[in-house]
Design brief:
The structure is a homodimer. By secondary structure, chain A is mainly β. Chain A is built from one helix and eight strands.
């Protein structure tokens, strides 16, 4: 057991890359990841799991084929499994993701390179 | 799928009771719950699951038999399954819990009344 709490702002200060999730904690077989996003990501879905977005700083959108959800700091959204989505942010936005261990950030998207998985910060 | 994001501050404004978790979202078979705590809770453990504490506002401690972890807003901690713990807060503290659906807040503690489970806000 760690001797101190996980400070999210401190962890965010330790990396700069966009679209490259860093694991900060595990609960059972789930991981909590921090990611900095800017610009638009690739359309993708995760066939086997829901995915949680919690915005820590800034603002972003989750585009779906039939709607766009706006999220600001202090807001969260659950992307249902199998549903195509595209995260985007006009300016840098810091997000916490919650999903099972082993989920890659590009899901089922073809022809794109996923970020390395299971990288801790 | 909801038409808008879940705003945590808005949800916190909708209840006042202490030690009475409210579900705000589900991801697979896990729930995200908000809880307001003040004072000291009962010693307990959860034999079957880890439990995540994310402090949204204020400060709290997680007492274990061999150490005490301090958490402030923007910090999180994962209580391993089976480990006795006692949450406490000198002043009101707002926390997000993440744990499997069905977990009761008093765990294995005997002789205490658990808060109603699976109450949404």
């Amino acid at each position: 057991m760690p001797d101190s709490a996980i400070n999210l702002r401190d962890k965010l200060g330790r990396f700069a890359e966009h679209w490259s999730p860093r694991v900060v904690a595990e609960m059972n077989d789930y991981q909590f990841k921090l990611v900095k996003i800017q610009g638009g990501f690739v359309w993708h879905s995760h066939a086997e799991t829901d995915e949680v977005f919690i915005v820590l700083d800034g603002a972003m959108t989750l585009e779906f084929r039939d709607r766009t959800i706006a999220l600001a700091a202090g807001e969260m959204y659950v992307v249902p499994k199998g549903v195509e989505h595209r995260p985007a942010a006009a300016r840098e936005c810091c997000v916490m993701l919650v999903e099972p261990r082993g989920v890659v950030n590009t899901g089922d998207a073809a022809g794109v390179v996923a970020a390395p998985n299971d990288v801790w910060v």
